[in-house]
Recover the amino acids of this structure.
């Protein structure tokens, strides 16, 4: 059973709902350490003044904000402390919006919420969000950092997905549509047929990170003093066909496979 | 793909490839759709000199160059298996520039927990026709393409979505990276009483509104910027940097390209090249 990483209380108007937060994401990237080539000792990092070559201890380093090409403003620890948000357990919901209004470019990281006490209210909140097809815009402070997120129902449970700030998103509405001559009806129809011929159910289990497995196999082999096996790949051949011809040929290919 | 946001120079198209489905190929350039936060602080010493990160060997205290450093995987406490770049390269996914579109799914069916990072795809290679055709059909039918591709030695699964005629690729996490309520030991679903549900639906109704960018202000950054400009006005704690620092330094070096501008140009260039060619031919 997974451990909760944080506890908070959702505030919706005057209604309060205590919850526990669990990470829904478990990164499986392979983490390497940097080692000294000759003695395989894990290297240490030091902060050095490049002019004098002197090492500066981490605890005596300071922070500065570059304001121009050659000017910085020093920011002292006490000053940075005053900027920190007040610690709080409150997950404030500022408003509920239709589920489709926040698109994927905003998503950052997903968490599941579990009930912290009142189970009935927890499942009622999940059910209500699902029924209304809404998600809540949530603000909270966790470990000294402010977050904005989306409170949603997922598989009958409550989930919180952290969202990016407005500055971090490039709005598609600011971008021009790619221009060109109008598309012919026939091409649109054929492309539509091809897309539908390749339609399938969303099933993430069909995709695996083979590279990750190969890295782990390599490490395993080397740890046991074996010579690693190396797989080879055949490059794919591509044909350069005119668009209409390619659409026609693709459709014929898909139909053949389906009837076979 | 974290490099995308690390340096201002990375704002230009940093990868190009070809979406393939069936026998159709759509050449595209790829741009990050997210940019990094605007406030990053530098670590300095007491005099305000920006510090550099250096690596040293803990045994002899010697400063190390990249050539002195290897990568190791800790198989047990303190025991490392050294893995060389050559070995990692040898097992890299095949180096192709294909974004292999394997299937189209209902765009609404993709679980939002899988989304990781967004990129814009813009037409490359002259003609925009195949690009526009794919975008138009996907948008009309509410489809998302699911593809795999290889970028920077990492295999990724992506969802390709169309919005306002523009294609976007969103990298997806793999299934074994996503936990389910069952994996977390959350209690079994219990059917709540309808009065309890009604209490929440009423609250939701009462507090519903339209999506507003006001909810997404980076307040921490704003507070920091306020403090910085106050100190600037008061000429307080301002130090001269011995070497150019920050975004401005990069800008003067001609490295900062406005991402929106770069995208705009790229989205329009396919069409203009096509027009130029036509004019030339005629």
């Amino acid at each position: 059973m997974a451990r909760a990483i944080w506890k908070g209380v959702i505030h919706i108007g005057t209604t309060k709902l205590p919850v526990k937060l669990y990470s829904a994401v478990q990164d499986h990237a392979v983490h390497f350490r940097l080692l000294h080539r000759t003695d395989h000792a894990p290297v240490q990092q030091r902060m050095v003044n490049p002019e004098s070559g002197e090492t500066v201890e981490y605890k005596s380093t300071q922070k500065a904000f570059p304001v121009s090409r050659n000017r910085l403003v020093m920011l002292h620890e006490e000053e940075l402390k005053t900027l920190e948000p007040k610690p709080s357990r409150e997950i404030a919901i500022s408003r509920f919006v239709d589920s489709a209004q926040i698109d994927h470019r905003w998503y950052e990281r997903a968490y599941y919420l579990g009930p912290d006490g009142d189970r009935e209210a927890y499942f009622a909140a999940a059910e209500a969000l699902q029924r209304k097809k809404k998600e809540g815009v949530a603000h909270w402070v966790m470990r000294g950092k402010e977050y904005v997120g989306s409170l949603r129902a997922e598989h009958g449970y409550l989930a919180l997905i952290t969202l990016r700030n407005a500055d971090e998103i490039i709005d598609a509405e600011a971008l021009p549509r790619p221009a060109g001559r109008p598309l012919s009806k026939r091409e649109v129809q054929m492309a539509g047929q091809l897309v539908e011929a390749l339609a399938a159910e969303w099933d993430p289990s069909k995709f695996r990170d083979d590279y990750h497995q190969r890295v782990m196999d390599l490490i395993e082999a080397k740890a046991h003093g074996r010579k690693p096996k190396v797989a080879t790949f055949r490059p794919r051949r591509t044909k350069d066909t005119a668009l209409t011809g390619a659409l026609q040929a693709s459709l014929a290919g898909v139909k053949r496979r389906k009837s076979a | 793909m974290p490099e995308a946001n690390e340096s201002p120079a990375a704002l230009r198209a940093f990868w190009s490839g070809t979406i393939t489905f069936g026998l159709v190929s759509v050449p595209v350039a790829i741009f990050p759709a997210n940019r990094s936060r605007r406030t990053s602080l530098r670590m300095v010493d007491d005099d305000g000199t920006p510090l550099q990160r250096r690596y040293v060997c803990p045994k002899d205290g010697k400063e190390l160059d990249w050539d002195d450093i290897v990568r190791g995987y800790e198989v047990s406490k303190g025991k490392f298996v050294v893995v060389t770049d050559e070995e990692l390269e040898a097992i890299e996914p095949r180096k192709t520039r294909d974004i292999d579109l394997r299937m189209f799914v209902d765009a609404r069916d993709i679980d939002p927990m899988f989304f990781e990072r967004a990129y814009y795809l813009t037409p490359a290679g002259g003609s925009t026709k195949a690009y526009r055709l794919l975008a138009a059909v996907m948008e009309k039918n509410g489809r998302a393409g699911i593809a795999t591709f290889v970028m920077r030695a990492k295999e990724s699964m992506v969802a390709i979505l169309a919005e306002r005629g523009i294609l976007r690729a969103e990298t997806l996490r793999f299934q074994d990276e996503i936990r389910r309520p069952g994996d977390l030991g959350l209690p079994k679903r219990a059917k709540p009483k309808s009065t309890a549900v009604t209490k929440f639906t009423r609250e939701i109704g009462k507090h519903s509104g339209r999506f507003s960018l006001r909810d997404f202000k980076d307040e921490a950054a704003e507070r920091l910027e306020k403090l910085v400009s106050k100190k600037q006005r008061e000429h307080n704690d301002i130090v001269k940097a011995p070497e150019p620092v920050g975004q401005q330094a990069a800008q003067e070096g001609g490295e900062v390209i406005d991402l929106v501008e770069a995208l705009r140009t790229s989205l329009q260039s396919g069409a203009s090249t096509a027009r130029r060619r036509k004019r030339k031919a005629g």
Summary: Confidence is low (pLDDT under 50) at residues 1-11, 248-256, 271-282 of chain B. Helices of chain B lie at 85-90, 129-141, 181-184, 194-206, 219-233, 246-252, 259-281. Chain B is about 30% helix and 30% strand. The radius of gyration of chain B is 25 Å.
